[in-house]
Amino acid sequence: NPILLEARDLTRSFSVSQGLFKGKRKLHAVNGVSLAIAKGEVLGIVGESGCGKSTLARMLLGLLPPSSGEIALAGENVGKLGRLGMAKRVQPVFQDPYSSLNPRRTIASIVALPLAVQGIGTAKERRERAIAILDKVGLPRRFADRYPRELSGGQRQRVAIARALILNPEMVVCDEPTSALDVSVQSQILNLLNDLRSELGLTYVFISHNLVVVEHIATRVAVMYLGRVVELADTATLFKAPRHPYTKALLASVLTPEPGKGIPETGLGLAFPDPLNPPPGCPFHPRCPAKMPQCATVTPKLRADTAGLVACHLYDEPASTAA
Ligand code: SF4
Ligand code: MG
C-alpha cells in the first residue's frame, strides 16, 4: 500500500524548569523518530509513560510542531496543511472520554462541532450527519440530546470516535483510547475501531502502554523508549520473537501481572529513568539484563533487517574483518 504519513527524523524538546535558581533543562521527549505509515495499516506504538508516545501523537496530528524533522501526509507537509486542513484528514481519539467532551454541549452538538468549525452545512444538516455517525458507533438517535454526564465511559468514548469520524478523515490517531475503560468495555471499543477501520478504509496510529490491547488491533508495532523507537516489526513477529531486551521485558510483564499491586508497567526492576537526565550510550542499559561493556557508551542505531528494525548492540553486524 502507498505511504500515507511519513515522519522523518522527528525531534521534540521542551524547556523544563528545574525549580528556583536551578534554571532550565532540555527535555528531549521525542528524539529522532522516523516512521512510514502505509494506507490501511494500524501502527501500534507502545512504551511506558514518559517514553514520548503522546508527544509523537500530537506531532502526527499537527497539534504540536516538531523541533526538527518533517512530517508529510500523502506527500504534503503537515505544517503547511495547517490545523483546519489537517483536521479534515487526521483526527484524534484521546484517552479520557470524561475530560475531552464539553459537559455543557449535547452529544449531537459535540459530534457536529468539527463540521461547524469547518463551516460545512447548515445546523440542521450537521445535526442529521451527527445522528447518522452516532448510529454507526452504536449510539441510537435517543442519545443525541443527552449530555456527557448522562453517559457511561464506553458510551463517551463512542461519542469521541463519532466526532473523530464526522469529517471523513483518512487517519485516526488513538492515544490510549481504552485505557480509562473497564476491561469488558475495552474490547467492545477495540472491536468497534476494528470494524470502522475495515468499513471506512481508515488508517490508525494506535498508542498504548498495554501490549495486549496493541496485539489485538495493530498490524505493526513500534516500541519506544526514552523518545526513541527501539524496535519495530509486524505484530505477529514482535509477539512471537521479540528481539530488543526492552520489548522482551514488556512482554514478560504482560504475562506476569502482580495481583493486588496493580499491573506494573514493565516488571523491570529499576524505575523508568529521569527523561531529563537520560543515561549515556544505550538509553536502556541501566535496566538491561543483557548489557555489554559498549552499551554504556555507544548509542545503538536503529537498523533494518528482514525481521524489522531494532536498536541494540546484540544485533550489530559483526565487525567486518578487512580483506
Ligand atoms: Fe541492552 Fe546493550 Fe542492547 Fe541496550 S544495546 S538493549 S544495553 S544489550
Ligand atoms: Mg501518554
UniProtKB/TrEMBL annotation:
Signal peptide: none annotated. SUPFAM superfamilies: P-loop containing nucleoside triphosphate hydrolases. It comes from the Bacteria. The keyword Electron transport does not apply. Pfam families: ABC_tran, oligo_HPY. SMART domains: AAA. It is a peripheral membrane protein. Gene3D superfamilies: P-loop containing nucleotide triphosphate hydrolases (3.40.50.300). GO terms for molecular function: ATP binding. It is found in: Cell inner membrane. This is ATP-binding cassette domain-containing protein. The lineage of its organism: Bacteria, Pseudomonadati, Pseudomonadota, Alphaproteobacteria, Hyphomicrobiales.
